[in-house]
Amino acid sequence: MKIYVGSQNPTKIDSVKRVFSEYEVIGMDVESKVAAQPFSDDETLEGAINRARECAFFDKCDLGIGLEGGVMEIEGDLYLCNWGALVDSKENVYTASGARIPLPDEIKADLEKGKELGEVMDEFANKNDVRKNEGAIGIFTNGSIQREEMFTHVVKLLRGQWEFEQ
Ligand SMILES: O=P(O)(O)OP(=O)(O)OP(=O)(O)OC[C@H]1O[C@@H](n2cnc3c(O)ncnc32)[C@H](O)[C@@H]1O
Ligand SMILES: [Mg+2]
Q: Binding positions for Mg(2+) (predicted)?
């Protein structure tokens, strides 16, 4: 069975490889069809579903998976939010979200100026490609939960729901 993941980001591809270790997992560039920096649960979820759908329709693969990172506001605080979607060959759609933590006000201010979180995190942490490594969640949990681990949890939730229906 082939599984296409709608991203070239290693944290996303590796999380799918971890959960579907017995399958061939391939990352591919697809369009999320939402903003590069989604600003709500709805928009982030939509991006994940769009990525998964495009993957599922490509090359008649068995499963398409989309993972999308975004931010959403609760009572004035901006939280990291992450959504995943799995689309099977029958076009069934399964969805799940990841853990969320609030972002510091200075990060929120930068995002409101229109910057992408990936760029803001690199400046903040003085590192390159935080988004492809520990992620904002890794930085702000002092390394407790890294971006790949957070996505692994999301992909487990997707696989479990899909298997429940088989
Ligand atoms: O190549 P793709 O799959 O698009 O992966 P990405 O790292 O850009 O990730 P998303 O598009 O899913 O996330 C939307 C934006 O939020 C950023 N982002 C999301 N979560 C992040 C995190 O934990 N750490 C750093 N940047 C993050 C990301 O870099 C983008 O600018
Ligand atoms: Mg992106």
A: 31
Query: In sequence order, which residues have a C-beta less than 8 Å from that of residue 21 and are 6 or more positions away?
Result: none
User: What pTM was computed for the model?
Assistant: 0.95
ipTM topping 0.90: yes
147: left (phi over 0), alpha (psi -120 to 50) or beta: alpha
CA 88 – ligand 1 centroid, Å? 24
Residue 78 lies in a domain: yes
Ligand 1 pocket member 5 (CB < 6 A) = no
Residue-range definition of the domain harbouring residue 67: 2-102+146-164
- CATH of residue 98's domain is 3.90.950.10
Is 31 annotated among the ligand-binding residues? yes
pLDDT in tens, 100-120: 999 999 999 999 999 999 999
